[in-house]
Amino acid sequence: MTATPDTPAKGPRGWITGRGAWITFLLVPPLVVMTLFVIYPIVSALAYAFYDWNGLRREGFVGFENFRIILFEEPFASTTWQAFKHNIIVFASLMIVQNGVGFILAYCLWRDLWGARFHRVAVFLPVVLSTVIIGYLWKLFFHPIFGVVNQSLKAVGLDSLVQPWLGQSETALAALIFVNAWAWVGFPTLVFLAGLQRIPSELIDAARMETDSEWHLIRKIVWPLIAPSTTVVFILLFIGSFNWFELPYIMAGLDGSPFGSTDVLGLFFYRTAFGNQSAGVQDFGLGSALAVIMFLFIAIVATFWTLHLRKKELDL
Amino acid sequence: MKKTFTTATLAMIAGAIAAPALAQDITFWSWRQEDRAVYEELIDQFEAENEGINVSFEAFEAASYATVLSTALAGDQGPDAMMVRAYGAFETVAAGGYLMPLDAESIPGLDSFPAAALTAETLREDGKVYAVPFASQTMLVIYNKDIYDQLGLSVPQTKDELLANAKAIEDAGMFAFANGTATAWQNETIASALASSIVGPDFYAEISAGTTDFNDPRFIEGMKALQEYSEYFPDGFTGLDYASAQQLIASGLAAMFAGGSFELANIQSQNPDINLGVFAAPGVSADDPKLVGVFFDGGYAGNANTEHPEAVKKFLAFLASQEFAQQFANKLGNISPVPGVTLENPLLQDVATLNQSSVPYIFLTNFRFQEPSGSVLIQAEVQRMLAGESDPAAVGKAVTDGIAIYHEPFQK
Question: What are phi and psi of A13, to 5 degrees?
C-alpha cells in the first residue's frame, strides 16, 4: 500500500537532475500525508498498547500485559472472544448471502434476463447510499410498533411473525446481517458481472455444444474463469466483516444491544479505547492492544488467503 | 459636549494602553453548545464585576467533548476553566493532575454544597475536590396529567396502585409506559426510576458501606417489580429505542415515562401543550419512603497549569455563587446543588422536592470507575431479564460477580 519512494535519480555529477527533482516533488507531499496520518497513528497505537494508562496519563511500560488482559483475563476475554465469534458469523453469513446472491444476480444480469438494464442500476443503488442513512432507514423499518416490516406482516395475516427484530438476541444479529447484505449486494454483483463479461463468448458457445446443463457450465467454465473476481470479492468481504462498525453502531448502539448479541470487535475496541459515555471507562492501552491484534489478524489472514486464492486461480 | 467627548476619547485611549498590562484572558470550555447565549450573558455579568478578566466561552459537541478535552489537556493546550463530567469520567481527567484542587478558601461556600454533590467531583485517590458541581439529575416517573385526569387516576402510593393505573391506561387503548429497552443505557435509568423505593434506602446505604452486595433479597425484589412493570411497556419494547420512547410520551400516546428529569425540557419543547407531572415510583406499601435516584452531571474545574490562577479562581467562585446558580437554574432549567436556589419552573420545583428523599444513582456514583463498570453490567442484565432470557436472581448474581473482580467487599 505504501509504495517506497524511488531514490531520486542522481545526475552525472551527483546533483539531482530535473527529472529527479520532479519525482521528489511528486512523491514528498503524499509521503508526508501518509506518514503523518497513516503510518504515525499505526505506529503510535502500537506503542500505546505496551503502556499502562491512568486516565489520560501514560504510565509505565508493561510489555505484553495489555494483550494478555484483553485476550485472556475477565471481564475482557469473554467479550473479546464473543465479539470475535460474532465477526466470524457475520463473515460466514455474508459470504453465503451477500456474495452468493451477488453471484446469482450477476449471472442473471449477464444472461440478460428481462429487465436486466433496470436491475443493474437498482441493485447497485444502495451501495452508493451512506451507511448512516441505511442504518437509520432500516432501524425505522424494523421498528417494533410502527415499522414497515411488522406492519406488512400484519397486513398479510402473519401476525405470529411480528416481533421486535432488533430487540431479541435470536434475531438482532441476523437482522443486521440482512441489512448489510441488502446494502452491499450490488458490489459483488458488479464485480462478478465484470468478470463474466470478460469471458469470450466463443468459449461459452463451444461449451454449450458439449453440455445442456447450466450447472455444469457454471461449474466447469464460468467459475474458473471468474476466479480473479472471486478473490477480490472474498478478500474485501473478509476485511469488511472484521472491521464491521458503522452498521452495528447505528442500529444496535455501542454496547451491541441487546445484551451484547450484536457486539463485534469494532464496537468493543471503541468502547475500550474511548469509553462509553453512558456506561464505561476509557483505557487507551487495552484499546490499542485490541486494535493491534485486529490489524495483525486481518493483515496476516488477508495476505495468506490472497496468496492461496491467487494460486488456486492458476490451478483452475 | 465637546469636553465629554474628549474625556471619553482620552479614557478609551488610556484604557487601550493599560488593558494589555492588566487584562487576564481566560478560556472556558463547555459541551453545552445549546446554552451558549445564557453562558455569555452570565459571563458578561462576571466581567462587569471583575474588571480586567476576559472570559471566552467555547463549546464543543457533547459526544466528542471528552476526547477533545483529553487531547488538549494531555498536549498542554487545555482551557483555563472547563466543564468536566462526574464520577469515573471525571477521574479520567482529574487523575492526570490536570485540574486545580479546590477548597472553601478559594471557592467561598464550597463547603456548604451537599456532600453527594461534592463526592461526584472528588478524586477518590486523594480525597480532594476538583470541580464545582453544577447540576443534579433525578430518576423518576414522568406522567401525562391530562391522561391521568381523563381516566380519573391519581398518583400511586403503592406498587399495586401503579400497576393498576398502568392497566387502566392500557385498557383505555393507550400505552401505559413509553419505555423501551433497546438502547442499553435506558435500562439503568428505568431500573433506578422504578425500583428505588422497592429496594429501599437501607440497601443503598449498605452497598455504599460495603456490607451487602446485589444478591441482597431487597435488590432482587426491586428487579422483580421491574419485571411486573414491564408487562405494561409497549408490545415489542425490547426493540424500542430511546428516541422512539421519547416520541411516545411527547406525542401523548403514552401516559408515563420512567427515566431522567433531563427529559422534561426535551418533551416540553417537542410538545409545548403537554401537561406533565412527576412522581417517585412508590414502594410496596404506602408507608415506604418514596425514593428517586439522583446523580450529579458534572462540574466547573480550573486548569492546574493555567497562567492566570487567580482569575480562574475568581471565575470558579462566581460559578459557585448563588447569584450565578439562581440564573443557571431558571434560565437553563437545571437543578442546581448550590444551597438556597429557588426554581421558577413548577415542574422543576417538584423535582427538587422529590430530591429531598433520594438514593444515589448507584451504578454511576459507586461503580463506574473500573471495568466492567456496574453500569455496563446492570444495563445488559436488565435488558436480558426484561427480554425474558434471565431472572431477577440472575441479574443480582451477574452484577455482583462482575463488580467483584475489582471491588473487595463483594469478594467472598
Answer: -100, 20
- Beta pairing partners, A10: A16
Per-residue pLDDT at A26 exceeds 80 = yes
Alpha carbon distance B363, B187 (integer Å): 12
B202 C-beta neighbours (distance < 10 Å), count? 12
Instruction: Return the percentage of chain B with pLDDT > 70, whole number.
Output: 95
B234/chain A closest Cα distance in angstroms: 8
Assess B305–A contact: CB distance below 8 Å, yes or no.
no
Left, alpha or beta for A55 (phi > 0: left; psi -120 to 50: alpha)? Answer: left
| Closest residue by Cα to residue B179 from B253, B120, B124, B119 | B253
**Greatest alpha-carbon span in chain B:** 86
Q: What is the CATH code for B137-295+356-410?
A: 3.40.190.10
What pLDDT band is residue A120 in, cutting at 50, 70 and 90? Answer: confident
How is chain A classified by DSSP, letter by letter?
Answer: --PPPPPPPB-TTSSBPHHHHHHHHHHHHHHHHHIIIIIHHHHHHHHHTTEEEETTEEEEE-TTHHHHHHHHSTTHHHHHHHHHHHHHHHHHHHIIIIIHHHHHHHHHHHTT-TTHHHHHHHHHHHHHS-HHHHHHHHHHHT-TTT-HHHHHHHHTT-GGG---GGGSHHHHHHHHHHHHHHHHTHHHHHHHHHHHHTS-HHHHHHHHHH---HHHHIIIIIHHHTHHHHHHHHHHHHHHHHT--HHHHHHHTTTTSSTTTT--HHHHHHHHHH--TTT----HHHHHHHHHHHHHHHHHHHHHHHHHHHHHHHH-
Interchain proximity B234–A165, CB inside 8 Å: no
Give residue A15's pLDDT band: very low, low, confident or very high (50, 70, 90): low
Domain count, chain A: 1
Q: How confident is the model over A28-67, as pLDDT tens digits?
A: 998 999 888 888 888 887 888 888 887 667 788 888 888 9
Cis peptide before A29 (omega within 30 of 0): no
Does A135 have pLDDT greater than 90?
yes
| Residue whose grid cell is 449486494 | A185
Q: Does domain B22-135+297-320 have CATH number 3.40.190.10?
A: yes
The CATH number for A223's domain is 1.10.3720.10
Residue A28 lies in a domain: no
Instruction: Render pLDDT for A150-188 as a digit per residue (tens, 0 to 9).
Output: 999 989 988 888 888 898 888 999 999 999 999 999 999
Closest residue in chain B to residue A165, using alpha carbons only = B239
State the residue range of the domain holding A151: 79-315
Q: Does some domain include residue A276?
A: yes
Position A45 in a domain: no
Task: Give the residue from B69, B90, B371, B379 with the most A CB atoms within 10 Å of its CB, the best one to mutate.
Answer: B371
pLDDT greater at residue B153 or residue B109: B153
Alpha carbon of B139: minimum distance to chain A alpha carbons (Å):
15
Q: Is B241 on the interface with A (CB under 8 A)?
A: yes
Please state whether the peptide bond connecting residue A258 to the residue before it is cis, i.e. omega within 30 degrees of 0: yes
CA distance A169 to chain B (A): 9
pLDDT in tens, B261-290: 988 888 888 899 999 999 999 999 999 999
Backbone angles phi, psi at A124, to 5 degrees: -85, -15
Position A183 in a domain: yes
DSSP three-state, residue B207: helix
Look up the ipTM and state it.
0.79
**Which triple of cell numbers denotes residue B221?**
425484589
Instruction: Give residue A41's pLDDT.
Output: 81
What stretch(es) of chain B map to CATH 3.40.190.10? 22-135+297-320, 137-295+356-410
